[in-house]
Write a structure and sequence with these properties.
By secondary structure, the protein is an alpha+beta fold. It has 2 domains: about 80-195, Uridine Diphospho-n-acetylenolpyruvylglucosamine Reductase, domain 3 (2-Layer Sandwich), CATH 3.30.465.10; about 200-430, Alpha-Beta Plaits (2-Layer Sandwich), CATH 3.30.70. It is about 25% helix and about 25% strand. It has 13 helices and 21 strands. The strands form 5 sheets. The protein has an 8-stranded antiparallel sheet with strand order 16-12-14-13-19-20-18-21. It has a 5-stranded antiparallel sheet with strand order 5-6-10-8-9. A 4-stranded mixed sheet has the order 1-2-4-3, with helices on one face. A hairpin with a 6-residue loop joins β1 and β2 (about 20-25). The radius of gyration is 21 Å and the shape is globular.
């Protein structure tokens, strides 16, 4: 076991909007004893695990406390593939990017991926990430936690336990979506999706208004494994909610044709945003309007079964290294919410208000969710989810988000903890009615409150 040394470091989420200083200790999740030793040394401000820092707000920060940096594990034994069972056992510090490089050439794909591959497996479970396939009702839908068969956790007392849906299920489901507040995930076993090629067959549709877009998404969800829509939220009137819908399936060998190696996989970052950008960034009404018009017009009215690479379909923003810098020094936040099925009118009202406010946002993603899982703090459940990126320099941001919060919560919706740096304790309680159930499990395994983060204190998740 390596000697643990810490360093004081200012940390921020991917949005770069909120920073705090903590003692950071690098740990290797392959070695649970190292993680346990780091836990024992946590002081009164506690500790929290941190992966690659892709949570947008402050859930992986701990001002004045300890942060366990768990990303970057590439040692022997970090990824174990069981091709017979169709599962992978993976160290929590391994990223989806690293995992794909190993499993895709062998004919497998992750059960769920978000819009970036630079997420650790531990972070994927702690945030219970969702992707373009949550609407699927078969074994290949839902969020990441649906596919996990077992977890190894380091608890607050430095003990190591194995849990799963059939082994201490209360602790297992409290950990899924629990934002790292039940313990440090050191490894996990989860199911994989078999694939024939490293290509995607993608159908693209340019759609002129919100009603038609939502109708098309509803009509195709039963037949398409993956579905996501980009919206132009600066469009108004009869073009309100116009957008581009992309549905996808893993391409078959027949579709790919005579490729020399149909499972050849390569993911690159082509360009990077320089460190020197204008203080206010380059995202404003003028640039976003131009981008949105270009992005909408360049999409075909209808193009079916186009072959795309896995990175191009699932992780397009990863092509640009450090793309979050375009928002400038003050950063941005991502506002992601869901409203249940039957509350489509509320979703439309939210989009109308964003459009009327002329909010300059180019990254706007709409998806449909299927049923949720048993995790009390898991975000996805049956309904619609919209995510928008907004620069913190937008003058009317706070009052706008308060109005949107009221609409979402009154409709029985909620907000995503992994994207949050805005939510209030009241919004947490209203959006997650099983919060007390989660707290009871957490109190059982962490009665002294070792696990804590800036987000947990801000929202009252922990004392």
């Amino acid at each position: 076991m390596a000697l643990l040394t810490g360093r004081r470091e200012a940390l921020a989420g991917w949005g770069q909007a909120v920073r705090s200083v903590a003692e950071v200790i690098d740990v290797d999740t392959v070695d649970a004893d190292t993680v346990a030793a780091a836990v024992r040394g946590a002081g009164s401000r506690g500790a929290i695990a941190r992966g690659l820092g892709r949570s947008y707000g402050d859930p992986a920060q701990n001002a004045g406390g300890r942060v366990l940096a768990c990303a970057g594990t590439r040692t022997a034994g970090a990824i174990v593939l069981d091709a017979v069972a169709g599962t992978a056992t993976v160290s929590a510090g391994v990223s989806i990017a690293d995992l794909l490089e190993v499993i895709v050439p062998q004919g497998w794909f992750v059960p769920v991926t978000p819009g970036t591959r630079f997420v650790t497996i531990g972070g994927a479970i702690a945030s219970d990430i969702h992707g373009k396939n949550h609407h699927q009702s078969d074994d290949f839908g839902g969020s990441f936690g649906n596919h996990v068969t077992s977890l190894r956790l380091v608890l607050a007392d430095a003990s190591v336990v194995d849990v799963g849906p059939d082994r201490d299920p209360e602790l297992f489901w409290a950990t899924v979506g629990g934002m790292g507040l039940t313990g440090v995930i050191v490894s996990a076993t989860f199911r994989l999706i078999p694939i024939e090629t490293a290509k995607m067959a993608v159908d693209t549709y340019r759609i002129g208004d919100l009603d038609e877009l939502m109708a098309r998404m509803s009509d195709t969800e039963a037949t398409m494994r993956y579905s996501v829509a980009w919206l132009d939220l600066l469009a108004a009137g009869r073009h309100l909610g116009r957008g581009v819908l992309t549905n996808g399936e893993h391409a078959t060998r027949t579709q790919v044709g005579g490729s020399a190696d149909p499972l050849a996989y390569q993911a690159r970052q082509l360009v990077g945003v320089p460190r020197v950008v204008p203080p206010a960034g380059v995202i404003n009404g003028l640039t976003v309007r131009a981008f949105n018009e270009l992005w909408y017009r360049k999409a075909p009215r209808c193009r079916e079964a186009e072959l795309q690479s896995i990175p191009a379909y699932f992780h397009p923003l990863d092509l640009v290294r450090d793309w979050n810098r375009v928002y400038g020094k003050r950063g941005f936040l991502q506002y992601q919410f869901l409203v249940p099925h039957g509350e489509e009118a509320t979703l439309r009202t939210v989009i109308e208000q964003i459009s009327a406010a002329r909010v300059p946002t180019f990254l706007t993603v709409l998806k449909r969710f299927g049923p949720g899982n048993p995790a009390p703090l898991s975000f996805p459940t049956g309904g619609w989810t919209l995510a928008i990126d907004v620069a913190t320099t937008y003058r009317e941001l706070a009052p706008l988000l308060r109005r949107l919060d009221a609409l979402v919560l009154d409709a029985g919706g909620r907000h995503y903890l992994a994207k949050d740096c805005h939510m209030s304790p009241d919004a947490l309680r209203r959006g997650y009615p099983r919060l007390d159930e989660w707290r009871a499990v957490r109190d059982r395994v962490d009665p002294s409150g070792v696990w804590a983060s800036d987000q947990s204190r801000r929202l009252g998740l922990t004392d």
